Each structure stands twice: as C-alpha cells, then as structure tokens.
Amino acid sequence: MNSGILLSLLGFLPLVTPICPVPCKCTTNITDCSLKNLTVENLPTAFRPSAEIIHLGSNRLTSIPNGLFDNLRSLQVVYLQGNPWECTCDILYLRSWLQWQQNRSLYRDVRCSSPEHLQGRIIAYLTEDEIISTCQHWYCSLALLSQLSLFILLFLQGILVIFIIVYLQKFRRMTAEARSTTRELDQQVAPW
C-alpha cells in the first residue's frame, strides 16, 4: 500500500516547480531578476525549468557562469542589456550561447564594457581570437610558472645524477681496494 502511494506521488513530481530564485520575481514562465544589483557571485545558480523569459538586465554582471542556460529547454529569450560585460576569457560561454540563438537581433545591446579595445562591441559577434587575446597574461604567467618548475626539476635531477656518479666512483674505489686487499691476504695466507 505504501509503495503504491509513493509511486503515485512520484508520478506528480514533474508537475512540481521549483521555487523562484532569490532575489528574483517569478510568474509561470517569466523570471525577473533585473535591477537587483546582481553580480556573478550572487547570481542564481539555476532557474526554473519552465522559464521562457529571463530578465537579467541592469545589474552588475560581468559574465555568465558556464552552463547556466544549458538545461532550460523552454527558454526563448534572456534580457541581458545594461550590464558591464567584461569581454575576457570568462565571457566565452555567453558569447557561445548568444551565437546559438535564433534571433540575434534581440542581443544587439549586449556589448563589451571592457577591455578598452573591445569596448562597445557586440558580444555575439566577437571572434574567439579577440577574446582569447585578452587572456594572454594568464597564459604567460602559467607558461612562466611551468618553465620555472621544469628548470627546478631538471636542476634537482642533475644534482641526483651527480650524487649517483660520485657514489658509483666511490663504490668502484671501495671494490678495487677490497679486491687488492683480498689478493694480498690470499698471497700472505697461501703457502707456496
């Protein structure tokens, strides 16, 4: 009997809609998070699956977390204008998502605020090379760190090889001494 009730409740599970993300206001298919002073750090991590329209305009968003819109099958439009978008490596997901949208004209106001050489450019029309060129400082730091680590590792290996060579030479001298001592003892002990 209990399993029958549980199964019938599980049948209604898809009808249950999650609560509206804080601090947004929601109706059945609209999630309004505009003018909430949202940043990437306090942006909701998920939206209702039934959301068709999401308002994220006029906040302080500089990028959108990877995958935020991927599982929203009913999503038709996201209003993103009025945010200070930083067109650096972190904007790649948003750019990619915008390029997959049917009606790109809705996103003509989604423009870069920084860096200076991309300021005012429409994010959907940026090339990947333009965005990645802003990431070079990170790659250079990583390359420098990698090269420094490699140099230290090679230095330590060199020291280890020197210790092994010195030990082997010492071992050869010790074995040569042991052989000569053994021969001398054999000659002294053996009566001819």
Automatic annotation (TrEMBL):
Record-annotated membrane-spanning stretches: 148-168
Statement: the UniProt record of this protein carries the keyword Ligase: no
Cellular location(s): Membrane
Membrane-protein topology: Single-pass membrane protein
Residues covered by the LRRCT domain: 83-134
Signal peptide coordinates: 1-18
Keywords: Cell adhesion, Disulfide bond, Leucine-rich repeat, Membrane, Signal, Transmembrane, Transmembrane helix
SUPFAM superfamilies xrefs: L domain-like (SSF52058)
Keyword Aminoacyl-tRNA synthetase: no
Name of the protein in question: GP1BB protein
Source species of the chain: Helopsaltes ochotensis (Middendorff's grasshopper-warbler)
